[in-house]
Design brief:
This protein is of the alpha/beta class and 216 residues long. It is 23% helix and 23% strand. An eight-stranded mixed β-sheet has the order 1-2-4-3-5-8-6-7, sandwiched between helices. Helix 1 crosses helix 4. The radius of gyration is 15 Å and the shape is globular.
């Protein structure tokens, strides 16, 4: 399938951003915080390119101190390309980063589609065993669960999975250099590629539509 790229300049809560949409297949890779959750933008592009999937990345170019806006407030009415993304894909894999010192090797798999979360967990266990994949919602910190109904991860037909990655799962670079792209670890790339491939081949993975009024 051919993949086409388009960009949109926008403001959300006064913060200037650039959205980049690459149209591809039925699964969508989303990086809402590509500017301040290092490695998520790179992972979205790499995984979508390897799988022929669709990707949407939001960044804040030229900003040394990016602003973090909770996902549930980055709604469709702010960004036309986000609306197009949500209409074009059936299931979203939304990539985020956490900095929890007590969970430096833990990947939290939230979002409303719990079946899809289990699929990704299996691929992390197989391809990236150096990281612990957690799917039990009760064991995921509330702010990382990704269950808010306005969170874009839950707004496609099959819902989606919010993948909260520790720093070690997002970049192989020990020190962040401004303007230099992060280099995600190969095992994490392999796990996400394998998981997205399985989800693409499993259109019956519908999810549970769990939702709460949590911040993300």
């Amino acid at each position: 399938m051919s993949r086409t790229e388009r960009t949109e300049h926008l403001r959300i809560e006064g913060v200037p951003m650039v959205a980049t949409l690459v149209r591809g297949g039925d699964i969508g890779l989303l990086a809402l915080h590509g500017a301040n959750e290092g490695g998520t933008a790179e992972l979205a592009g790499i995984v979508a390119g390897r799988c022929g999937a669709t990707s949407l990345v939001l960044t804040q170019p030229g900003t040394r101190r990016p602003v973090h806006i909770p996902s549930a407030r980055m709604a469709v009415d702010h960004c036309a390309l986000l609306g197009e993304f949500l209409s074009a894909v059936s299931l979203t894999v939304s990539l985020h980063g956490h900095m929890r010192p007590d969970a430096a090797r833990t990947v939290y798999l939230g979002g409303g589609n719990r079946e899809a979360a289990l699929v990704l967990a299996q691929e992390f266990d197989a391809c990236a065993p150096g990281f612990r994949a957690v799917t039990d919602v009760a064991a995921i910190p509330p702010a990382l669960r990704g269950l808010h109904p306005r969170n874009p991860v839950n707004m496609t037909r099959r819902g989606g999975v919010q993948v909260e990655l520790p720093l070690a799962a997002r970049t192989a670079d020990p020190v962040k250099r401004h303007g230099v792209p992060d280099r995600p670890p190969q095992p994490v790339i392999d796990a996400l590629v394998a998981g997205v491939a399985r989800l693409s081949a499993s259109p019956d993975t519908q999810g549970t539509r769990t939702s709460t009024q949590e911040p993300l």
